[in-house]
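This part of the workshop introduces the protein records we will be handling. Backbone structure tokens are a discrete shorthand for how the chain folds in space. Once this layout is familiar, the rest of the handout is easier to follow. The record below serves as our worked example for the rest of this section.
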Amino acid sequence: MTVHELRSWLVEVVRPLVNAPEAVAVVEAGGTGNTVRLEVCAAEADLGRLVGRGGVTIRAIRELAQTAGGRSHLRVLVDVPGTRSGPRRSGP
């Protein structure tokens, strides 16, 4: 899976979780070598839904990204700007 495909896939995973799916965007925010940092942007009102109670939802999203990226030997950092969830490493 290429980084572009991973970004598109992550958009499709996140859109059903929020009230304003048209506001969802995933941008590549850097990375080196086999590490990719992705930021999931959503409407401010949807940030709580994206992170979930106790961070459960964002942890699940990161786990999915780990699996998807791992197939292509990518380490994926998923961050949600505007939250305290911070980037977390996902990958092999």
Q: What stands out?
A: The chain has three helices and four strands.
